[in-house]
């Protein structure tokens, strides 16, 4: 179902997410962002479109505001932002469920590629409809 609304996913911090400082490693937050972006795409794109298009990240900006610890349940939210003919911004917020603290705020720029040729696909038609209806 096409949607430009927020998409939410929950994650529980596991031992492999933790670094030597005993909190979630910065790289893991990037994995959380990629995972929710993929899940959001899969929730709005038809299986046929998913077979034709793959998204790659061009840029990430991450603000680490507070630490997440082992066992914390995180609520991760994403939504799409501005787009051009070949790029689409995606925004993320990651909260600790127990106290509602905002832990991470991030933004990525994604580029759609033809899955077979790896050439950039224009953001139009079916791709555009997935997020804007």
Can you walk me through this structure?
By secondary structure, this protein is of the alpha+beta class. It has one domain: Roll (Thiol Ester Dehydrase, Chain A). The protein has 3 helices and 5 strands; from the N terminus they run E-H-H-E-E-E-E-H. It has helices at residues 26-44, 47-52, 125-132, and strands at 7-12, 53-64, 73-83, 88-96, 102-114. Strands 1-3-4-5-2 form a 5-stranded antiparallel β-sheet. The longest helix is centred in the N-terminal third of the chain and has 19 residues, at 26-44. The mean pLDDT is 95.
Short descriptors:
Thiol Ester Dehydrase, Chain A; alpha+beta; five-stranded antiparallel beta sheet; 133 residues
Task: Report a brief summary of the structure.
The protein is of the alpha+beta class.
Shape: elongated
- Secondary structure tally, helices: 3
Number of domains: 1
Give Rg in angstroms.
16 Å
CATH architecture type: Roll
Please bin the fraction of helical residues: 10-25%
Strand content: 35-45%
Give me the secondary-structure category.
alpha+beta
CATH C-level class is Alpha Beta
| Overall pLDDT score | 95
Looking at the structure, the CATH topology is: Thiol Ester Dehydrase, Chain A
Calculate the terminal CA-CA distance, rounded to whole Å: 8 Å
Largest sheet: 5 strands, antiparallel
Give the low-confidence spans. Answer: none
* Record field, number of beta strands: 5
Oligomerization status of the protein chains: single chain
Helix-strand string: EHHEEEEH
Assign the CATH superfamily. Hotdog Thioesterase
Strand order of the main beta sheet, please? 1-3-4-5-2
């Amino acid at each position: 179902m096409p949607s430009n609304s927020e998409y939410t996913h929950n994650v529980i911090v596991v031992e492999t997410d933790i670094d030597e400082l005993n909190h979630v490693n910065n790289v893991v937050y990037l994995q959380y962002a990629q995972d929710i972006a993929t899940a959001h795409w899969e929730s709005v794109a038809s299986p046929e479109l998913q077979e034709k298009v793959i998204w790659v990240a061009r840029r990430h900006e991450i603000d680490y505001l507070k630490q997440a610890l082992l066992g914390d349940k995180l609520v991760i939210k994403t939504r799409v932002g501005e787009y051009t003919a070949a790029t689409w911004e995606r925004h993320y917020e990651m909260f600790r469920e127990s106290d509602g603290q905002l832990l991470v705020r991030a933004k990525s720029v994604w580029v759609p590629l033809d899955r077979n040729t790896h050439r950039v696909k224009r953001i139009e038609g079916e791709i555009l409809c997935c997020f804007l209806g």
